[in-house]
Amino acid sequence: MFVENFRQGVTPREGQKYILSQIESLIKSGHTQIIISAPTGIGKSHVAKAIADTLGEAFIITSTKLLQDQYKSDFIELKSIKGKSNFECRQLMEKSHIEDKARALLKGLTCDKGRCIIKENGKIVSSCEYREPRGDGKQCVYYKQKDAGLAYNQTILNYAMYFYLKAYQSDLPGVDRRVIIFDEAHTIENEVVRFIGYDVWGSYLMETGLDQKNFELESIDGMLDLLESLQVGYKDMLQQNSKPNTPKEIMAQKRMEQRLDGIVAASREIRTNSQNFIMQEPEFDNQGSLRRVSVAPLDISRYTKELFDSEIQVYMSATIDKKNFSRIMGFQDCGFIDVPKSPFLPQNRRIGFNNVARLSSRSPESDDVAVAKVIDSIMSMHPDSRGLILTSSKYRCHSLQKRLSSEQARRIQLAHSKNEDNSTIDEVLKYHSEMPNGVLLSSSLWQGIDLKGDLSRFQIIEKCPYPYLGDRRVKAKTQANRSWYIYQTIIKLLQGFGRSVRDSDDYATTYVMDSSVQSLLNQNKDMIPAAYHDVLFS
User: Fold this and answer.
1) Could you tell me the CA-to-CA distances from 98 to 102, 103, 125, 244 in Å, in that order?
2) Residue 290: how many other CB atoms lie within 10 Å
3) Which residue of 31, 79, 301, 530 has the lowest C-beta tally within 10 Å?
4) pLDDT of residue 121
5) Per-residue pLDDT at 319
6) pLDDT for 279-329, tens place per residue?
C-alpha cells in the first residue's frame, strides 16, 4: 500500500521500499508512534510524502526554513507555513507610504512587528484590516499563506510554527491532523526546550525601569519575581501608549505586547511545575549589566502528550536511537525501523581514527601541539581540495589555527554562528565556495549544512564534541542520566561525519584526531544506527 503510493514517475530505492514496507507492517500491528533511523541519502522526503499520501491529512515538520524550501522544491503541491518575520506587513507599508515588497522587507516592516489585533485594557477590540481577504487583493501575505496551509491536506512547517499552533491555536481548522511526520527528529528535545524555556534580556529591565540588583537571578523564585515585575511594567507602558499612530509607535507597541504575552505564558508555565525548571547562569556585559538570564525545562516528556498527539506519529532522523529517544520523549512502545545499509559506498565515506591524543580541558599543551601537527600534515595531503575541520569550541578553533603552519593557516576560514567580522554563515560558505582549497574551521557546523561535491573532499574531527557541562541544564541532565550525555555526544558526532558526503556520487574522507571518539563509539555500539557500522566498526 505505502510503496504503491510512492511518487508517480519515480522508482523507489531499496532503502525507501524497506522503510515503507516496515511502516505498513508496524501500523497494521497497532503501532502509532514509529521511529525511523534512515541514513543520509536514503531520500527521507520521498518517504515522508508516500506516508502522507497513504494515510491522509498530514503535517511534515522540519527543523529549518531551508528544509521547508527543499520539501517544497521536491513537491510543489505541498503547502508551506512560515512565521511572520518572513513576510511584509501591509499595515506598516501603508503607514510608511511604501508599496514595494522588497523595500519593506529591507526596512524591517515585517508582520511580526505590525499589530494583527488591537487591544484596549488587555481586551481585543479589533483586528488588522488586512487580516481577512479584501477586494483589492491586499490581504496580509502571512495570513494568506497560513490559511492556505491549514486548508490543504499536506502542509510543511518548522518546529517553532508547529509548537505555536499546537499550544495557542489548536482549535483552528486544519491544526488537528491524522498523521504528523517529524523530520530531523534528533533535534526535538532542543526545539521543545527552546519553545518552553524563556530568556529575559537586560533590555527588558531597562525598558521597564527595573533595577537588576532587586532580583535574585540565580533562583526560580527570583525569576518568578522578575517576571511578575516585568508584567506590571509592560502593562503600565501599554496603558500609557494605547493608541500608536506612526510605524515606529506601532512596532514599539507590538514589541511590548509580544513581550508581555511571553512573560505571562512563561510565568504560568514555571509556576505550574517549578521543580522541572532550572536557571541558567546569568550573563553580564563588561560593565556588569545584565545581558540575559534564562530558565529551561529539564524533562520535556511532560509536554509530549500535548504537542505530539496525532493518531499516527512518525519520527525520522539519520542519527536516532530508539531507547534514548523514547526515554527523552516519554514514549512506552514505539515501532522502530533501523535501515541496515547506507546508500553510499563505504569507500566514498571512509572514517580514519588517527587517535593522536585523548583531548580534554586537562590535556597537556603537548597533546594539542601533536594534534595540530597531524592536522597540518593531513591538509598538506589535500593541497588542492576544500575541507572542513570540526572542534568543540571557538577557543579551540583559534588555538588550532595559531598552531598550524603559515601555509595551511592561510587556507583556514573560521565559520561560527557569530563571526568577528559580523559575516553570516551563508556569507562564509559563499566565500568558501570561491576559494579553491579553502578549509572551514568551526565549532558550530556539526549539523545543518551540506558541503556537496568539491565543497569538501576531506573533513577532520579535532575534538570529541561532548556537551558543555558549564551549562546547568546539561549538568543536571547528565547527573540524572549519564546515558543522555553520551547520546547527545554521539548524535553530534554522527551528524558531523555526514557533512561532506551528500549523494551517491559524492566522496570525502574523515580523519578523527581525538582518541576519545573511537573508544566512545566502541563502548556504545548499541546507540549507533546500523547504517554507520560498516565505516565505524569494520
Assistant:
1) 10, 8, 27, 19
2) 22
3) 530
4) 66
5) 96
6) 999 999 999 999 999 999 999 999 999 999 999 999 999 999 999 999 999
Q: Rounded CA gap, 508 and 378, in Å?
A: 13
Residue 208 has a pLDDT of 96
What is the percent of the chain with per-residue pLDDT over 70, rounded to a whole number?
99
| Chain centroid to CA 535 | 27
Helix (H, G, I), strand (E, B) or coil at 226: helix
- Using CA atoms of 325, 329, 333, 335 in order, give the dihedral in degrees to the nearest 10: -50
The set of long-range contacts for 395-403, using a CB threshold of 8 Å and a minimum separation of 24, is 396/443, 396/462, 396/463, 397/441, 397/442, 397/443, 399/368, 400/368, 400/371, 400/372, 400/375, 400/441, 400/462, 401/441, 403/368, 403/369, 403/372, 403/373
Q: Kindly report, residue by residue over 476-501, the tens digit of the pLDDT.
A: 999 999 999 999 999 999 999 999 99
- How do beta strands 439-442 and 387-390 pair? parallel
Which amino acid belongs to residue 494?
Answer: L
pLDDT band at residue 131, thresholds of 50, 70 and 90?
confident
Q: Where are the alpha helices (DSSP H) in 100-210?
A: 101-106, 141-151, 159-168, 188-196, 202-208
Q: Give all strands (DSSP E) within 217-286, no chain letters.
A: 277-279, 283-284
Backbone angles phi, psi at 273, to 5 degrees: -150, 65
- Per the structure block, which three cell numbers stand in for 285? 556585559
Kindly report the backbone phi and psi dihedral angles of residue 179, in degrees, each rounded to the nearest multiple of 5, phi listed first.
-130, 140
Residue 422, pLDDT above cutoff 90: no
Which amino acid belongs to residue 444? Answer: S
The percent helix, strand, coil of the chain (3-state, each to 5) is 50, 15, 35
Which cell numbers hold the place of 107?
526596512
- Residues 119-129: what's their mean pLDDT? 74
| Average pLDDT for the chain | 93
d(CA 405, CA 185): 40
Buried-exposed string 451-483: b where 16+ CB fall within 10 A, e elsewhere: bebebbbbbbbbbbbbbeeeebbbeebbeeeee
- Name residue 412's amino acid: I
Residues with Cβ within 8 Å of residue 451, at least 6 apart in sequence: 386, 388, 440, 459, 499, 500, 502, 508
